[in-house]
Amino acid sequence: MAMLRRIATATVLVLALAAIFTLLAQTEASDQATVERFLPETEIAEIARLRKVLGATDDPMLIGIRGPEAAGQLDLVEAWLEHAPGVTRSARWQPNDAATSGIVVASLEPNTGQLGHIAELQAWLQNRLARLRPRPEISIVSAGSIRLAVWEGTRRDLRWALPLIVVALVAISLVIYADLTAMFFLLAIAGCTTALTLGLFRCWTGSLTALALLLVPFIWAVATLDAMHVYHRMRRYLDEGLDNMAAIARALRELAKPCALTTLTTAGAMLALATQDESGLMQRFGIWTAIAALLAYALTFGLATEILRSFKPRRAAPHWPERWATELSLAAERHPKPVLLFWLGTLILLGWQLQALRVDVPFPQILVRDHPIHADLDFVQTLTGTDLSPVEIYIDASDTRGRDPLPLLSALGSLNHQLHSYDETVLVLPLDVIDPNEMKIDVGAMRPDLQAEVIRERLQDPRLKTWIHTEAGVARLQVHFAKMTLERKYEILEWIRHFDQTMLSHHRLFFAGPGYAYAEAEWLGWVELWPGSLLPVLVVLVFLVWGFRKRGLWSIAAFANVLPPVLVLGCMAAFDLPWSLAFIPIPAILLGIAVDDSIHLLWPLRHGGTASEAAREAAPALLATTLILMACLLPLGFSSIQTNRWLAGLLSVGLAGALIVDLTLIPAAIRIWWRR
Q: What is the largest CA-CA distance in the chain?
């Protein structure tokens, strides 16, 4: 029977891993810019309507060329683009009027913003650009090409994310326990939890997007927390002389309540992310990580008996984790006041550093510095002097008068004049590139008796297709700014909104494009940083109070778990690492996951004992879970997306710091509190 159970467990494990690989292989790219999902639904709907009226896309492609024969080669590129698939119009832009360099701006047809079309167009262009002689410096950049590069990097990351996690988990379980039983048990629970969660996600949403790159490491990590403690407790009872079944039963009975509390704190903190209205991505991440935590608890306590009874440990576990944790805790117990003063001073110092924390927009440099696209971005940014993060401004008639050609032309001219009043404005499309001697719109130079028909005919020039629709009273401008801080860009956007409210009588403005969407999303993420961090703290605090009941214990746990998020955010400020929307889950993750160590250390103290004794009993499991959590972040650390790398590094620092805090601060606080 034991052999049959082992075969059944191995079969379940293989099927779970196969299911995960199959689901990850079905991951699909999203054609919609992810950041646009952070905007209000009504605003997204209005932009979609206006784009449909104009037949426009927000993804003009910039082809930069620099070389001795650039002038003639730019003419050739423009001729090619007349027959390029998916391109409506092209125009030349030479910012410095240099004969040796220039930019060709290619406007794409509607519905060609999809990643597949962009890949085909880029391949088509590269094939022809390779024929140019002498060979110039060439770069092709667009918001769509950046999305394409991000998706291709994500797809590569997904291929080896799971193998890396599996190898790391096997290595850690063998190093800490020197036994295959821990490896099989952890793999079975984590594999089944991840497969079920991804399967439910796939069924619920209808597709599996690149969010899987974030979900898999965190689901895998959360799924091992309870399983590791159950195995460790069973292993300890086996060493004390209990038989296999008795040890399993006792371990499950004793850990049911503390593991339920850790699961609730983790799920609650993750669900707090669902309140982050500025990030639908973070909402889904929080919800599905919380579901994974609940599934992991059910699977751990539902399958532990069947799995562990089939794989009895054959050798004694190493004792170095217990010795290390015990010595650290005993040192904190012997010198409680210096330890508490050190951590209190650290909290104050890092809390003071938080005022230096700044926010920045990573777009378009969202990939790692050594990625090939960075060379293209730097080249085109140098040629144009822009941040390659354009702002789309749509002008829409608010009344019948606004649909007449003359008011529309007046609104365009006034807005263009206002935009050029800012020193940071480099280029306004299409007015700055389409034959400026004839097509640049200057309302002040028009004769008062100019008829509406003449104006309408002028605005219906084929070169203005997708930019102006006279019958609907709709037009758009695309503004390319120089590099600036997020605060300055947000200030300019607010001024333009004020211009809309005070200067335009018959039209209203709508904003879109990466320059607006990223600035708006990052600013909202910054504004919501502290309120968004407070909710996970309150959720965790409620569960701690409910679980421990004793004021001393839950207050110590609360203080110990405020430190890791402050430690991470303070380090970001000290090392001038800017805050970004991708870092929103850091406080919730650290609070929801790192609090598990505090609960397992404090749970035995409800009925007496010392913190060093509790640390000695739980040390291997605490060390193993921390190492596994950090190992699960390893794939993100090698991601081609820079913010993923920073996220992995910051969370690893926070998790390691949380373990040190728990093993030192808790014994010191217990020693002083116990005396009182």
A: 104
Predicted pLDDT of residue 150: 82
Tens digit of each residue's pLDDT (9 = 90 or more) over 47-62: 888 888 887 765 678 8
- pTM given for the model: 0.85
CB within 8 A of 568, min separation 6: which ones?
A: 586, 590, 650, 651, 653, 654, 657
DSSP string, 400-449: SGGGSHHHHHHHHHHHHHHHHTSTTEEEEETTTTS-HHHH---GGGS-TT
Query: For the chain, which residues score pLDDT lower than 50?
Result: 436-441, 443-444, 446, 448-451, 676
Residue in this structure with the two tokens 């003071």, named with its chain if needed: 352
Cα–Cα distance for residue pair 178/171, rounded to 1 Å: 9
Whether omega before 620 lies within 30 degrees of 0, making that bond cis, reads no
Provide the CB-side half-sphere exposure for 180 (13 A, CA). 6
pLDDT at residue 33, rounded to an integer:
56
Calculate the alpha carbon distances from 572 to 519, 583, 653, 672 in Å: 20, 11, 11, 32
The residues with which 425 forms a beta bridge, in sequence order, are: 481
pLDDT at res. 438: 47
Which pLDDT value is given to residue 419?
92
d(CA 202, CA 208): 5
Q: Which two tokens stand for residue 250?
A: 């006792």
Q: Shortest CA distance to 87 belongs to which of 125, 54, 53?
A: 125
Interatomic CA distance for residues 488 and 492, integer angstroms: 6
Looking up tokens 């690492």 gives 577
Distance CA 99, CA 645 (A): 41
80, two tokens: 């090619």
Whole-number Å distance between alpha carbons of 380 and 383: 5
pLDDT score for 439 = 45
The full DSSP string for 247-263 is HHHHHHHHHHHHHHHHH
Alpha helices in 273-386 (DSSP H): 280-308, 320-334, 336-353, 372-384
Query: Quick one: CA torsion of 202, 643, 35, 422, rounded to 10 degrees?
Result: 180
| 3-class secondary structure, 91 | strand
